[in-house]
Design a protein that fits this description.
Blueprint: H1 3-28, E1 35-36, H2 42-46, E2 67-68, E3 72-74, E4 81-84
Parallel strand pairs: 1-4
Antiparallel strand pairs: 2-3, 3-4
């Protein structure tokens, strides 16, 4: 290997070492804000989804399927949609 080839190789390896972690971080960022659940969708109707729970203490915020904070989050039953913590559906499974 000549000195020029070695220099190119080392430069390429250094650039690769930076590019891989950066691309991993970029891949985990959300590309856009999630849309709210469409109340008329088949999934929402089947699960009797409501944006605000009518029963005290039964809401998405205290469901084992809910993945979010005290305001909003995600649920695997409504993939790609933002779920308010105050919402409820018939698949509600209390934490604890």
């Amino acid at each position: 290997m000549t000195d020029t080839s070695r220099r190119k190789f080392v430069t390429l390896m250094g650039a690769s070492a930076v590019a891989i972690p950066v691309s991993a971080v970029i891949g985990t960022l959300p590309s856009h804000a999630a849309e709210p659940v469409d109340l008329a969708s088949d999934q929402a109707v089947a699960l009797q989804y409501v944006a605000v729970s009518e029963v005290e203490g039964k809401n998405c915020g205290n469901c084992t399927l809910y993945q979010g904070d005290e305001k909003s989050g995600m649920c695997p039953l409504f993939a790609g949609s933002e779920i308010p913590a105050a919402a409820w559906c018939s698949a509600h499974t209390p934490t604890g």
